[in-house]
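Title: Prediction job returns without error message
Component: structure pipeline
Severity: low
Priority: P3
Assignee: unassigned

Description:
Job completed but the reporter wants confirmation the result is attached to the right record. Sequence as submitted:
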Amino acid sequence: MAPMDYETYVKVVEQGLQAPGRALASNPVIEKINRGELTKTQLAGWANQIYIQTREIVRYIGSLYANCPIPKFRREIFLNLYEEEMGGITKTDSHPELMARVGVAFGLKREEMDRAKLHPATAQVIRLGEFYLAHRHWVVGMGCAMGFEYQSPIAFKLIADGLRKSYGLTDDEVLFFDVHVRADEDHSDSILRALHEYATTEELQQEAMEAAWTYAGAYYQMLSTYEAFA
């Protein structure tokens, strides 16, 4: 079979990302946060898991940078890495440190966040990040990134608004989520351009699409880890 034309391909990927269990903005955690239904203990544990995943994914973004042979996209991956590691684009802080603020706001000590036990759902997101970003074709890695970054601006805005409204967190404490609303819109544009120009075979299109869907499903499960901290 011939590869899909770009417009059809993106539409198919988008439709798959809206499937139950992949659409991050539909995760029940968002409604529960906005209604104030979760305890601080649940939110602390949940935030800790996202912190650990955010801390680890930076390493594999570095692998994607090294694997990318196309200078213009390698530079864009570098800028993403620079933002994740240092907050260099938004002039804030590293994304793990921004996420740590959420855990601290819900009563965790900074040092205990680094010692926290890894939930199986979080471990799966980390494993998939390593697999797709470090060990597959760089275009497949971009597909994996699409599974999260294409969705995070909407989902994370809802989370940030809910944490402010229902739990009284400050703008500084929810900055992790606000930063992703802005930054990931730019990252998504880069991902789409890479897929447009380099996902030009049926095999690459299929593998990048499956990476996006698989990673989105795993991230969805990680967003549900609040259930483990009742």
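Comment from assignee: result matches the submitted record. The chain has a mean pLDDT of 96.
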